[in-house]
Amino acid sequence: MTIPAGSAPRGKLQRALKNHAFRWFCTLCAAVSVVVLAILLGSLLLQGWRHLDLEFIRNAPSRKPEKAGLGPAMWGSIWICAACALTALPIGAATAIFLEEYKPASPFIRKLHGFLQLNISNLAGVPSIVYGIIGLTAFVQMFGLVGNLNEPGFTVGTPDDWYYLQLPFGRGVLAGGLTLMLVILPIVIVSSQEALRAVPNSLREGALACGATKWQMVWRMTLPAAVPGIMTGAILAMSRAIGEAAPILVIAGIVFIRFTPQHLMDEFTAMPLQIYDWAGRPQDEFHRVAATGILVLLAVLLTFNASAVLIRQRFQKPLQ
User: Phi and psi (nearest 5°) for 154?
Assistant: First the structure.
């Protein structure tokens, strides 16, 4: 087959033009995104820099904008995120290990395993408000099977004790933390699975060839190699949890709280809820206070994301 003269250079020129056009298109999209983000951050700084000081972080909410603070909301976020992390991270990592390292050999169980994997992946895209409704039913009310909010069916201690526990949990810290656990659990499982899949099979085969059991292979070889990816995914999931407002609004019900939680059953508020409360008020000064709260929340989220990057760089080692 004879190629017509001049067709090859023309095709090469067209490919080069398409390459440059696509590169400039990507550059333009990235530049527009950065400009929009810079405008939003600049607007927040202009509105919120007046209230940004240590007193704002320490003070409680107030009906006077100049005295309003984020203290109880910040401590409430710390409480619920601690409860969320202590439940979601072990369960998520253990589930990922089970799904990746202990795959069944039976065809029927393998189909059930695939069905479970598909549902976990789909749960990662469920709106968070749905998890709030589930948490309200399962944790706050416990389906009405164990008493009610006014008359708990089971209690340990008194409301003045730090170890106070009741069933159902009510609108307290534990119910909020478990609800956030439902929100981030699919994300933790999927990210942990991806980290385990990135471990070369040669490490598993070498450990098993040396006589190690399945659990010894997972505990001594696979899991240490996957820890950087698991921790990165967990921290990014926690950064989503600390910024969630919809499920916590369903659980807490109230946002104006001037005290910090003292135990797991205590009522609470969180930073997104407090910002939502300030932004919904008609006074312009409260809108500036809300902008200050957004800056603090963004600083916390950026700290989480930066720590994820540092952990990956610190613990990630070349696998040989």
Answer: -150, 135
Write down the residue that tokens 């298109």 correspond to: 25
Tokens of 66: 């100049």
Domain boundaries in the chain?
52-315
CATH, domain range 52-315: 1.10.3720.10
Q: Tell me how far apart the alpha carbons of residues 267 and 290 are, in angstroms, rounded to a whole number.
A: 22
As a whole number of angstroms, the distance between CA 144 and CA 184 comes to 26
Among residues 86, 83, 104, 98, which one has the least CA distance to residue 189? Answer: 98
- 5 pLDDT higher than 80: no
Q: Which two tokens stand for residue 139?
A: 């944790």
Instruction: Report how far Cα 152 is from the mean position of its chain's Cα atoms.
Output: 31
Maximum alpha-carbon separation in the chain: 92
Q: Please give the structure tokens belonging to residue 117.
A: 């994997």
DSSP states of 87-122: HHHHHHHHHHHHHHHS---SHHHHHHHHHHHHHHHH
Tens-place pLDDT, residues 141-191: 998 888 887 788 888 988 888 889 999 999 999 999 999 999 999 999 999
Tokens found for residue 202: 């040669």
> Rounded CA gap, 237 and 107, in Å?
33
